[in-house]
Amino acid sequence: MVHRRRTVVIGWALATGVLVAASGACSSTPAATTPTSNVSSTRKPPTTLPGPITASDPSKPILASLGQTFNIRVDLDPTKDARWLADEFDPSIVFFIGEAPDQGNATPGAPLTDVLQFRAEKPGTTKVVLRFGTPENASPNDRRVTFTVTVS
C-alpha cells in the first residue's frame, strides 16, 4: 500500500509540473504579468456629486448637475396662515423632495425662511414657481416667485 500511495503522489506531482510547464510554454505572456484587455470601457467611473446648492435670489439661475439636490430659500411671514408651496415645475426635470422651516438663522428679529428642496432628475431647463398661500385655497392674489433651474 505504501508503494502505491508514493506512486500516486509522484504521478500527481509530475502531472502538475508538466501542466505548469506546458501552460508556461504555450503562453505568449510571461507568467508574472497581468493580462490586459484591448476593449475600452464606455462606463464612466463613479463621481461624487457636488453638495446641495442653496438659492434665494430668483434673478440668478440655479445651475445643478444631474442627481444633485438644491434648496430654494424664501422669506416666510409667520403672521400669515400660509407657507411657500412648490406650485409649478417640470417633474421630469426636477423632483420636489420636501419643505421645512429654516432653522439656520436663530438671530432675534431676523426673518424666518422656508426651504424647499429639489433634486435634479434630467438635463433641461424649467421654471420653478413658488406660491405663498395655503394648499387648499389658491388665489390669484397669492404672492409668487419664479426661479429658473438648468440641469446639466
Summarize this structure briefly.
With 152 residues, the chain is of the alpha/beta class. Helices cover 16% and strands 37% of the residues. The chain contains one helix and eight strands.
Describe the structure.
The chain is α/β, with parallel strands linked by helices. It has a domain at 54-151: Sandwich (Immunoglobulin-like). It contains one helix and eight strands, in the order αββββββββ. A four-stranded mixed β-sheet has the order 1-3-6-5, with no helix packed on it. A four-stranded mixed β-sheet has the order 2-8-7-4, with no helix packed on it. The chain is globular. Residues 1-30 and 33-41 have low confidence and may be disordered.
